[in-house]
Specification:
Layout: H1 13-19, H2 22-30, H3 40-53, E1 57-63, E2 67-74, H4 80-83, E3 85-87, H5 93-99, E4 103-105, H6 119-122, E5 127-134, E6 140-148, H7 156-202, E7 206-211, E8 217-219, H8 221-226, E9 236-237, H9 239-245, H10 251-264, E10 268-275, E11 282-294, E12 297-306, H11 308-384, H12 390-417, E13 426-428, H13 430-445, E14 449-455, E15 462-464, H14 466-482, E16 488-499, E17 508-517, H15 524-527, H16 547-557, E18 561-567, E19 571-579, H17 583-587, E20 594-595, E21 615-619, H18 623-635, E22 639-643, H19 646-654, E23 661-665, H20 674-684, E24 689-694, H21 698-701, E25 710-713, H22 718-733, H23 736-739
Parallel strand pairs: 14-16, 20-25, 21-22, 21-23, 23-24, 24-25
Antiparallel strand pairs: 1-2, 1-6, 2-3, 4-5, 5-6, 7-8, 7-12, 8-9, 10-11, 11-12, 13-15, 16-17, 17-19, 18-19
Helix pairs in contact: 1-5, 3-7, 11-12, 12-16, 13-14, 14-16
């Protein structure tokens, strides 16, 4: 007898896990053998084992989680023979399942795997030999075993025989399983076909199946009904029955599509009309089919739907859609006409408003300029009279000079309103500026107006023109004073704010400056006009109407916005926002600045000798302006030459003329502006000083004059001209690196 390794007692972790493994138990239940009746195929094997091995008992044992069931037994004592099962406490076969290998016990009383097994005493088992009974997937379902009432040494032939019988029993299990699976599949197929039939009929569908080799066709009941036929009991139909019902206009295309599918396997999906056989009614059907290969050859199968109601609904929907589109087109055309009429009316209203505003602007400009011209014209007429006393002549000249200054201030305010004034932006501390204005505001407004400030600590710096900021605050303060004839309080506030984007400003960080008074307030119907030039709510002679428009122009040109809140009897608050200065603003180069009256240091004062030995080329297309400019320069000691355009000036310089400075207008005919002339001279004649004079220039207003170029605003005074030329000549005499 071969030696078998000693095994641990039953109940170990590894063996128990194999015994109760869910996949093994599931495979056991799938066989359908548990608690099934005895079968001859298994009984023949147990009888054969008893006869060949001359043993008392042979078993086909199926080991469950808590018991063993005997599919076949020979020689088993009662009550086990009748119950055909034992608990696992009586099972040697459990060890075969746990080990997945044969188990031979020669003497149960001496073998460690039999210790504690109740079958030894209760079933008189003295010797045991078992081999694994495997399912088709290899899992161990139980054991084929034999037992004897006396100890017995099992030979290798005995073990081989039991293993062969176990394999035969496994084959019987597989065959039984295959039969059971086939029966289950057939039952499932029948159930599925019945469900499909019920679903097809319940959904109002029909099916067909045509055997292409024989031409035999099978229709469902709905197929017959759709074509107006009485259903045949066997469901058989013919190709002609179908063709006879096709609408004459659809027959050719439907037949061709069906032939391509049956012959070539092309997808078959088509809608067509049929004429019912019973009542001649025309119906729309939708068919889907394909060619499939079956055991008896190729078949043409498919489903059929009655889509008459759907087609009718689609046709009605198409009619409604067409009607709706017609109505939409009509309504749209009417709306467009209405919108066009409204646009024209609004454009007419805007044009009228523009004309009214232009009329008010030109009227105001004409009024103020006529006053200025009156002073100039009257003064000129008086100066032409003989024997005008010297003191009277000096007063007349002073009045004319002041009139020119007034004209200059008026054009400056107009440019501020139009956001075209030349600004001198720099980064500065708003809090410091406003604090420095407190004394000026109190002095300007008088004792009847109390001035208070409310400035948030840590106020951000801004990048703007500080002098224009002061002018703006002073304008708002004067307006507030005039709105409080009996006295009141003016509060100047400043705080940091973060604002979202609006129509007039970009999103970002701003400093909000506000001027709030306790005066009369502005009626709501006038608020929309307060930024119009020459519009004023003050009485006659109390204001020019340019103060708020100048503030509006400065703020918007600086990248901010402004708005007013007011309520009659409760005062007015004007808020404007200036963008917070960035590092780029602080580090950027200074813009070219126009020379202002009184803006020069004392050392740059007027000198009749400063031009001696120097020549200035005057570039001006207006002969009168050019003549006066030359006269002023000659009074300063300069020699002068004249050119009527930038091109002529470049030609003069190219001809070798000795020129120390060029004094040019900005806007001139000929295609080359004064700014472009200055840029060209910086490249071709870097030692020639350049001064630009203009009443208004877009590039100069945006601070884009070439580096090293002085600018002068018209009308200019002799002292301003002297300062500008002195600065320009001094810079041109410096090293080129500094001049650049």
């Amino acid at each position: 007898m071969p030696k078998h390794p000693q095994r641990p007692p039953p109940g170990g972790d590894e063996g128990g896990a194999a015994l109760t493994a869910p996949d093994r138990l599931a495979a056991l239940r799938r066989t359908g053998l548990l608690d099934s009746a005895p079968e001859p195929a298994f009984d023949r094997l147990t009888r054969l084992a008893c006869r060949l091995l001359k043993v008392r008992t042979a078993l086909v044992s199926l080991v469950d989680a808590d018991r063993q069931f005997f599919k076949s037994q020979q020689g088993l004592p009662e009550p086990w023979a009748s119950s055909r099962e034992t608990p696992l406490s009586h099972s040697f076969c459990r060890h075969v399942v746990e080990d997945g290998a044969p188990l031979a016990v020669a003497d149960a009383l001496a073998h460690p795997r039999a210790r504690g097994n109740a079958a030894v005493a209760e079933m008189d088992v003295a010797a045991y030999l078992g081999a694994p009974l495997r399912a088709p997937d290899g899992r161990v379902l139980g054991a084929f075993c034999v037992t004897d009432g006396a100890p017995r040494a099992w030979s290798e032939d005995d073990i081989s025989l039991v293993q062969d019988l176990a394999e035969m029993a496994a084959a019987a299990v597989a065959a039984r399983h295959e039969v059971a699976e086939r029966r289950r599949a057939e039952a499932a197929l029948r159930e599925s076909e019945e469900r499909l039939r019920l679903a097809v009929e319940g959904a109002g569908m029909a099916t067909w199946d045509v055997a292409l080799a024989t031409g035999k066709a099978t229709w469902t009941a709905n197929h017959f009904a759709m074509l107006g036929y009485r259903r045949r009991p066997d469901g058989c139909a013919t190709y002609g029955m179908w063709m006879d019902r096709l609408h004459a206009d659809d027959r050719a295309r439907v037949s061709e599509a069906a032939d391509r599918c049956a012959r070539d396997g092309e997808p078959y999906g088509i809608e067509y009309r049929v004429v019912r056989a019973d009542n001649g009614e025309e119906r729309w059907l939708s068919a889907f089919g394909r060619r499939v290969e079956q055991a008896d050859g190729p078949h043409f199968i498919g489903v059929l739907f009655d889509v008459t109601e759907r087609r009718a609904a689609e046709a009605a929907l198409a009619r409604h859609r067409a009607e709706l589109e017609r109505l939409v087109e009509e309504r749209t055309a009417a709306l467009l006409r209405s919108m066009e009429e409204r646009r024209r009316a609004e454009e007419s209203a805007r044009q009228a408003e523009r004309l009214a505003a232009l009329g008010q602007l030109t009227g105001g400009v004409a009024h103020d300029f006529n006053n200025i011209l009156q002073v100039v014209a009257s003064g000129a007429a008086l100066l032409k009279r003989p024997a005008v006393p010297e003191d009277r002549r000096a007063a007349i000249l002073e009045g004319m000079i002041q009139a020119g200054q007034n004209a200059r201030e008026l054009t400056g305010r107009l440019l501020a309103f139009a956001r075209r004034q030349p600004l001198k932006p720099e980064t500065f501390d708003v809090a410091e500026r406003l604090a420095g204005m407190s004394a000026l505001l109190r002095q300007t407004l008088g004792p009847s107006v109390a001035v208070t400030t409310d400035i948030t600590p840590g106020l951000w710096p801004v990048h703007a023109d500080p002098s224009q900021l002061e002018v703006a605050v002073l304008n708002l303060a004067v307006n507030a004073r005039d709105a409080m004839p009996g006295g009141g309080t003016l509060t100047v506030q400043a705080r940091n704010v973060a604002l979202s984007a609006s129509a007039e400003r970009a999103a970002g960080e701003y400093v909000c400056i506000a001027a709030k008074d306790t005066g009369e307030g502005v009626p709501p119907h006038l608020l929309a006009r307060i930024f119009e030039p020459f519009f004023t709510t003050k009485g006659a002679g109390k204001g020019t109407g340019l103060g708020l428009s100048q503030v509006h122009g400065f703020v918007t040109q600086s990248g901010g916005d402004i708005h007013v809140e007011s309520e009659p009897g409760r005062g007015t608050a004007v808020f404007f926002h200036l963008p917070r200065a960035g590092t780029a603003d602080a580090a950027g180069p200074p813009a070219a600045r126009p020379v202002e009256a009184g803006g020069a240091p004392e050392a740059e004062g007027l000198s009749v000798l400063q031009g001696v030995g120097r020549t200035v080329l005057v570039v001006e297309d207006n002969p009168d302006v050019a003549a006066f400019a030359c006269s002023l320069l000659e009074d300063l000691g300069y020699a002068t030459e004249r050119a009527g355009s930038a091109a002529e000036a470049l030609a003069v310089l190219a001809g070798g003329a000795r020129v120390d400075a060029v004094f040019s207008d900005v806007l001139m005919p000929g295609g080359i502006s004064g700014v472009e002339l200055a840029a060209a001279l910086r490249l071709s004649h870097p030692r020639v000083a350049v001064v630009l004079a203009t009443g208004y220039s877009e590039p100069l207003a945006q601070g884009s004059a070439p580096a090293g170029v002085q600018t002068l605003r018209k009308p200019y005074r002799l002292d301003e001209l002297a300062v500008a030329l002195g600065r320009a000549i001094a810079r041109s005499a410096a090293p080129l690196e500094a001049a650049g």
